[in-house]
Structure formats: structure tokens, C-alpha cells
Amino acid sequence: MILTSKTVLLCSLRAVKGLFFSISFRSRHIQVGKMARSGCCNAILLVLTSIVLSLTPLPGASPQGIDKPVILRVKLPSKEQFLEPVGAYPVVAHLGKLPSASNVKAIIRIENPESFDLPIREITATCGCTKAKLQGDTLVSAKETDLVVDITTPPNSRQSEFVGGLSLNIDAEKTDFPGLQRVQVSIRYEIGGLLNFRDLMIPVDVGAQPFTDIEVPFIYTFATPAKELKIQADGVLAGVKGSILPGDRTQNLPHRVKLSIDSTFASAQGEVGRLTLTEPESGRTSSVDLVLYSKTAVKLSPRTLRFITAETDEDSLTAGGILRLNVEKEVAPDSIRAEATLNDRPLQVNLKRMGGNIYRFHVSGNGAMFQDLPDDSQVAWRIMYADRQVFSKCDFVTTN
Fold first, then answer.
1. Beta-carbon neighbour count of residue 70 at 10 Å?
2. What is the Cα–Cα distance from 367 to 188, expressed in whole angstroms?
3. In CA terms, which of 189, 304, 311, 389 is 20 to 30 Å from 29?
4. Which residue, among 290, 293, 289, has the nearest Cα to 269 in the 3D structure?
5. Which element (helix H / strand E) includes 261?
6. Which residue has the higher pLDDT, 382 or 10?
7. Which of 369, 378, 258, 376 is nearest to 2 (CA)?
8. For the chain, which domains are there?
9. How is 284-342 classified by DSSP, letter by letter?
10. What is the DSSP string of 352-399?
């Protein structure tokens, strides 16, 4: 299963997303405030014309800025296409991949093919902009006008793509078409140099099966292939080996770390293991805490007992393992008892407390008990503690 905030049942801590100011840019000054909103429109928009843009690709950006501008050509619908002329002209500016934590200057050249000018009274922004200025404060008819935008990219983000916007609000009173409202510029770019898990902490219900396979998604936008990332597991996950599953943007599938977790790592209260990724060239790391819990009252490990000849009695076979009680309060050692049978014949069980509600067990029986058994035979358990009893079964093998 892929672990996301939608698939887990407990609340996970969400990373704090980057905050962006809504800035109102006016002629020669900046006013910080709420983004201006258009009033309600009484007229019904009968035709919505898609805007086709011609966009020149950006070269690789650096913290010093972009050398070449992005050139956009916006084909605005004419007034005849609206029975009641009202609406916004959408523009999408794809800036490519921009480095994180950088100041980038973008020049968006907007062409107005209309037979009339579009005077702009103000610019409102939600794109992480520190400055936006339209040359001459007017989209001149049949010409290109430069929209200069200074963008500060997020230093750290749990989303690989940034989406923001600029609204060029039209001063309709200065035109013959009072229904015209704004030119809406959507600014998009991929944030380069990111390595982040999508969550800070994820609860994982390992269930009753011996092992649980999980996939932990993460954001990765370095040039180094994701498969070269180093994986480290600590806490209760120490020693667990993981693998990288590359993402597929065409299917909206993120990069993932795949792990196979032993269910005995979990408890009712939750046991914490930390998963860390490291990008080898930059040394950048990202970590997520996995809280492993289980609703199963008793855990037996291993799931397949291996019986061998007892050192003290050649006619007996013995096997060992770990028994864990998944209860919130510690159970007194003298209140727990375990019974085991093989094909309805009792086996001898010894328990030794290791700490908390964890016990080491040894189970043994006469070698003749293991002869001529049905193929589907299992060791049946009855574990009693406090006022409860739990039944379980496990497979076994014998070796000489």
C-alpha cells in the first residue's frame, strides 16, 4: 500500500506549506493586503474562448535570475464573441524548473491583438512575487507588452510544482467595453533541488500478517536518478532494507520507498521507526517517522517455528521465539500463561520475560509427535493473561 494522508486512519502531521503574500501592485508603490476580488457578474457568459499560447522554453535558471524572457502571445477573443461582453483572459506561463530558495526574474511578454488598448489599473498576485510591473500600465493594441515579475521560489516544499497567479485588473471605464474584467496569468514551475517526504509522521497498521509491505511517497527533483538515493532505517526499523520505486509523472505517481515490515515491530501503543533519505551529491536529507501499531492482541514470532533436536534429550524436538502482548498496560509476569498443541496433543511451553510485555518462549515435544502428521498441521496456541485469552496458530518445520 502507498502511505498517504488519505490512506492512514490516524492524524499525521502535515508539513507546513510555504506562505505567499497576496500583494496589490499599483503604479510606483506596493500595498500588502488581501487579493482583490472581482464583483459578482450578473451577465451570463455564453462563450468561453480558450487561450492558445506560444511559449518559448526557458534555459536553466540560477539564483542570479533568468537570462532570456518567456514570450507569450495571447489571442484575446473579440467583443463580438460575447453577447454580453464580460470575462477574463486566461494566460498560462510555464517557467520550467526553477531552483529552490532563489530570486528569479521572469519577463512575460503579452501580446494584445485587439483593436483597442487594455489599460491596467492594478495587479494582484499570489505567486510568491516580491514585485510585478507592467510596462506602461497598458496592454497596447497589436503590440507586445512586458510584464516583469520578481519571484522568490520556496526554500522547502512538499509539492514539486508551484502554482500561483497574477491578475491584471482592467480599467474598463477607459474602454468601450465595461464588461471586460481582467487578464489572469497563471504561473507554474517545477521546484528544483527538493528532497522531501510528504508527511513528517505516518501511522502504520501492520495488521495480523507476518510482514506488511508499505510504500512511502516522497518529493524528489534533483538531477541525480532517484535510485541512487541512500536509504537508512533507525529505531524499530533498524536493519530493515528498503528499495526505491521511481515515480511516473504521466500517471501522477510519486517516487516511493518500499519497505517490508515485520509485524512483531508493532505494538498497541505504537513503536516509532525513522526512515531517512540522502541525496549523495548535495548531502541533503529528509526523514519521516513511521509509527507502527497493531490491533492484534498477541504477536508470535517467527511465524514458522523451526524444531530441532533438543541438546538435553535426543528424543525431543524444541523451537523458540518471541511472544509480545499488544496491550497498553504492563501485564504481571505471573498472570500470563501459554499453552500449545500439535494435532490436539499438548506441547511443553516455557516463558521467560525479556522486559515489558515481551517474552521469549521455548516449546518442545517428543519426536514421535511429529511423525506422520497431515500436511496442513499447525501448532495451535492458547495465550491467557489477566481476564483474557487469545487463540493463534503458526506453521512449523523440523530439521535433524
1. 21
2. 72
3. 189
4. 293
5. strand 255-262
6. 382
7. 258
8. 35-192 (2.60.40.10), 195-293 (2.60.40.60), 298-398 (2.60.40.10)
9. -EEEEEEEEE---SEEEE-SEEEEEE-SS-TTEEEEEEEEEE--SSPPPGGGEEEEEEE
10. EEEETTEEEEEEEEEGGGGSS--TT--EEEEEEETTEEEEEEEEEEE-
Which position has the higher pLDDT, 11 or 46? 11
CA 369 and chain centroid, separation: 52
* CA–CA dist 375, 244 (Å, integer): 38
How far apart CA 176 and CA 76 sit, in angstroms, is: 16
Q: What pLDDT digit, counting tens, does each position of 221-233 carry?
A: 999 999 999 999 9
Task: Report residue 317 as a C-alpha cell.
Answer: 524436538
The residue type of 396 is F
Phi, psi of 381 (to 5 degrees): -115, 145
Residue 263: which residues within 8 A CB-CB, separation 6 or more? 206, 207, 208, 209, 210, 211, 212, 294, 296, 299, 301
> How far apart, in Å, are the Cα atoms of 6 and each of 9, 70, 202, 277?
8, 37, 11, 23
Side by side, which strands form the sheet with 195-197? 195-197, 211-220, 255-262, 243-245
pTM, two decimal places: 0.58
Q: How many residues does the chain have?
A: 400
Record the cell numbers describing residue 273, joined without a space: 521507526
- Host H or E run for residue 143: strand 143-152
Handedness of CA 318, 322, 323, 329 (dihedral sign): positive
